[in-house]
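Human: We require from you a standard protein entry with sequence in single-letter code and fold as tokens, and nothing else.

Assistant:
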Amino acid sequence: MRRSLLSVALAAASTIGLRGDVSPASFIARIEAVQSPNRQGFDPFTLQQVMAKFHVPGVSVAVIKDFKIHWAKGYGVADVTNGAHVDTDTLFQAASISKPVAAMAVLKAVQDGRFGLDDDINVILKSWKLPTGDFARDQPVTPRMLLSHTSGLGDGFGFPGYAPSAPRPTVKQILDGEKPSNVGRVRLERPPLSAFKYSGGGVTIMQLAMTDVLGKPFPDIMQEYVLGPIGMTRSAYEQPLSPRRDQNAARAHDGSGSARDAKWHVYPELEAAGLWTTPSDLAKFAIEVQQAVRGKSSSVLSRSMALEMVTPVGVGDYAVGLELQKHGGGWYFGHGGSNWGFQCDLVAHRVKGYGVAIMTNGDFGGPVITEIRARVAAAYDWDWLDKPIPR
């Protein structure tokens, strides 16, 4: 982008901060409109014009205010081949936002006494073992490390997915890099907790551990442990997507906004990349984390267990499943996601009741997400903005 997220937000903050009409329609109008004052960048563009500039056919947004969904809205088209419009029920691939939602299920299993967050993963696993060599001689690899990308694994995945007609590997074939897997094997390259390296492979190990321990298919575990209790009724770890759900699912599009050669790719790496959902359901997840951390909800986790999701492990920017970032005067949790033809983002304040979930069906959705997030932060007067100290 031509300027930073903060400068975009500051440009809008002086004129569209919280004042006057505070209805959802008023906030939507501020976010969609040309920004004032006009300090170049994307301020002269409407939201629809920003989408057109980056060739993103469809966008869906849900905004959190006061620990509730303040509004949700869809923009553009879900599929350029048939012109179907995006609505608030349109399903998108959550990509790597699958990881923190699944991490909540892992913590539920820990809370239920099925295993410990700091137990040796090779004691938890039954059907496969992680080769550790000398790397884990002094400290075993644990679920906490796998879900915070500090285990010492070297894969760095990023899964490309599979065409719907292509053969798909088992989880063990993925971990060992055996055909028909299209990625390398998942192995340690350094001692645990010695460095941060993003590892989709590590999260996939946790997928196998959960099914080994609980003896159920992973989609059923997620429905029972997280999706059902939170009320994420438009969500499923379903790969490939069923024809019923596919009726209102977005298509993957490339960087020019053209339809990909398949409607979507399939991801057997369910915990890492397999969630289909909506921004409203992701907002429900974020609100549940916020409320559980405050001790106001225990639909899935106790307060002490929820704090594991927003407390850094000491290496890198991650807690258990969630990335933590400081913006202006506030601490935020969230996660981004990038699958074949889909880009998405979730961010929420750690203790205050606001946030936003944004999902797109184009490869260049990232700049559109950044712009929407900045406009939301400015319109709602988030502490994302650096403000002078009162004197």
